[in-house]
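Input sequence (308 aa), recorded before submission:
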Amino acid sequence: MKKPLLVLAIMGWCLSQTVLAEAAYATFKEAIVGANEKSKAKDYTGGRADLNEALVLAKDDRERAATINLMAETYKAEKNYAQARNEYARVVALPEAPKATKVQAQVESAKTFDTEKNPALARTEYAKILGMADATPANKVAAQIAVASSFIGEKNFEQGRVEHARIVAMEGATLAQKTTALTAVARAYDAEKKYEEARTEYAKIGALADATPAQKSASHLAIAKTYMDEKKFEMARAEYVKISALADIPLNDKITAQLGIASTYSNTKDYTNATAELNKVLTMEGLSANGKANVEKQLKAIAVLSNK
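Predicted structure, token format:
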């Protein structure tokens, strides 16, 4: 008779411990605090145990989403990115979770593939945002930028140009984002020495309806550089002259353009005109002391060359 009584006593003790374990925290907030403390101590298994309790105590999908996001963070800390993605997918699937939280969970899922240096799968995850009903136009533009940038990072310039071009036509794309996208397309052509195509894209920046004077001057400067790279100095000079005629552009752009004009002459050994253009720089507003010293150095070098 003693053995059954002993078994019953042990069972009762186990049951009491289970109840105590289940009642470790009285509130959702307490469970989250406990989880955070354990995670801070790198006890991720213990932290997840507390987070699972927090899930039981959570009153709505907002709190559930916050808890699962923390769960994903513990897996990322352990470099278990596959399980982290599983957790982010749970957040996205919560019907009443805040829209922004769900979209950010999808972004974080994509970022885990970036961390694993798997750009193809990262793009797949970013692309899902484009089809999310909860995503705002701004969210979709950001996702498209990530997709486009990923192709450029792989030096897949052709597809990168295609993806960047889509940004310009997207609802919610800001002027800065459109400019950045067009610049990326142009630079991709530049990288392949396709200068004519690059100039077409740079020109689109200056032609944007809401382009600022600074963006217009940057467009001309970029076009001028492509001509300089091709040693088409007269064409480059024409672009630099256009900048000089623009109103309300940064003083530094005006100085850069004037230096560019001088450079087109010095590159063709027209030292008389190069000297005249450099002397104009010395009288320009906004020229720094270092800038002045550099111009004077160039003038001395040209004087030596012209006497040879």
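Checked by second reader. The two ends are 119 Å apart (CA to CA).
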